[in-house]
Structures are given as C-alpha cells and as structure tokens.
Amino acid sequence: MACPLDDGILGTMRKRSRMPRDLNVLAHKTLQIAIGEDVEPEPKPDKAKNPAAVALGKLGGPKGGKARWKGVSKKKRAQIAREAALARWKK
User: Fold this and answer.
1) Secondary structure of the chain as H, E, C letters
2) Each residue of 25-48: pLDDT tens digit?
3) Which of 34, 51, 67, 87 pairs as cysteine with 63 (C-beta 3.0–4.6 A)?
4) Is the overall model pTM greater than 0.90, yes or no?
C-alpha cells in the first residue's frame, strides 16, 4: 500500500513550518495563523552569483582530481596522504 506522502522510489515527506519552542513566540505564531496573517514568511530573494567567480569555477571544476595530481610526484603524494591520515587519526 502506497503512503500518500511517498514521492518516487525513496519517498519524501512534505515540508512544514517548524513551530517555535518559546511559549510567547508560539502563542503569537498561533494567533497569526488563526487570524490568517503572515502564515509563511516571504522567501528571501536569491543573491546573484558573481560572474567572475562562476567563470573561474568552470575552468577548474571539470578537470577533476586526476588532472590536478599529474604534476605532483609520487613521493610528494605519499607525504600528503600520510599527513592527511595522521590528521584524521589525531581527532
């Protein structure tokens, strides 16, 4: 039997507003909903992306890690990997 909230293979739940924990704020929000005022806040407009930053990202992003590691020697790669492993285990 399909759940009414299922959406595709994995299924997703509907987004709902989170009610505040502070009782005063909760009472105010409940009153606003009851009288039909400001049920959901206006979504914030997306900030435009910097075209120069987008261009730089397009230059380096598609190359991938293998292309970046071509100029690094095997000895240097081993040293970097060792330092990274030590940093992980140090936590």
Assistant:
1) CCCCCCCCCCCCCCCCCCCCCCHHHHHHHHHHHHHCCCCCCCCCCCCCCCHHHHHHHHHHHHHHHHHHHCCCCHHHHHHHHHHHHHHHHHC
2) 888 888 888 888 866 666 677 678
3) 67
4) no
